[in-house]
Amino acid sequence: MATYNFSVLGMIQIDASGRCWIEPYDLAATNDIFRHPIIRLKDPASGNQHGFYGTFWVPNNYVSSPVIVPIWTATATSGNCRMNFAYRAIGGDNTESLDQSSLQESVSVTDAAPGAAHRRMTPPISLTAGNFAAQDTIEYYFSRFDDSGVDTMAADMLLHDLIFQYADT
Fold first, then answer.
1. What is the pTM of this model?
2. Which of 5, 34, 53, 163 is the most exposed place for a label (fewest CB within 10 A)?
3. Residue 5: its H or E element
4. Do 78 and 31 touch, CB atoms closer than 8 A?
5. How many domains is the chain partitioned into structurally?
C-alpha cells in the first residue's frame, strides 16, 4: 500500500467574513524570497469561524485512509489554533446532485502554536473512509473555528497549503 498526497487549494472562494484573505508570504515573513501565496486566517471571536470554500476530485487509485493536512504557521508561539474541515462527497454519473444543502461530515483539530515563529506545522485531520470513493467530487469549507474558546492563539494563522492524503491498494 502506498500513500499519496496532493494540494486541494486549486479553486477556492474566500468566505464573506472579511477575516480571511490571500496574500504573498513575504508580507508576513521577513526573510521569504519566494513570495508564494498564503491564506491568512485572523483570530476568530468566540463561537465564530471564517475560512474558504473549495472542491477537489478523488483520484482513481483512492482506496482508504483519507486525511486532510493543513500546512500552517504563525508568528505567535503560544496558544492553540482550532481548524475545521466540513465536506460533502458527491459521486456517480447522473446519480447525485451537486446542489445540496447539507454537509456529510465536519471534523476539527486543535494544534498548539509553533515553538518558534514561522515553524512549519502539519496536524492531520482524519476523515471517514466510507464517505469517499474514487472519482467523487468533494466540496469543502476549511475554517479557523473557535468553538467554546478553544482557539487561544492571539495571532493570524498563515496557511501555506492544504493536502489530501490517502492510501491505494
1. 0.94
2. 34
3. strand 3-7
4. no
5. 1
Q: Beta 11-14 vs 49-57: how paired, if at all?
A: antiparallel
pLDDT digits (tens), the chain, 169 positions: 688 998 999 889 999 999 999 999 999 998 988 889 999 999 998 788 999 999 999 999 999 999 999 999 999 999 999 999 999 999 999 999 999 899 999 999 999 999 999 999 999 999 999 999 999 999 999 999 988 789 999 999 999 999 999 998 7
Say what the alpha-carbon torsion angle 41, 38, 110, 83 is, to the nearest 10 degrees: 60
C-alpha cell at 70: 493543513
Amino acid at 146: D
| CB 42, CB 28: distance < 8 Å | no
Cell of 34: 519566494
Phi, psi (rounded to 5 degrees) for 130? -65, -15
Number of Cβ within a 10 Å radius of residue 154? 11
Domain that holds residue 72: 3-167
Q: Specify whether the CB–CB gap between 140 and 85 falls below 8 A.
A: yes
From the list 115, 137, 108, 126, the residue with the least C-alpha distance to 166 is 126
Q: How many Cβ atoms from other residues are within 10 Å of residue 126's Cβ?
A: 12
CATH number of the domain that residue 56 is part of:
2.60.120.260
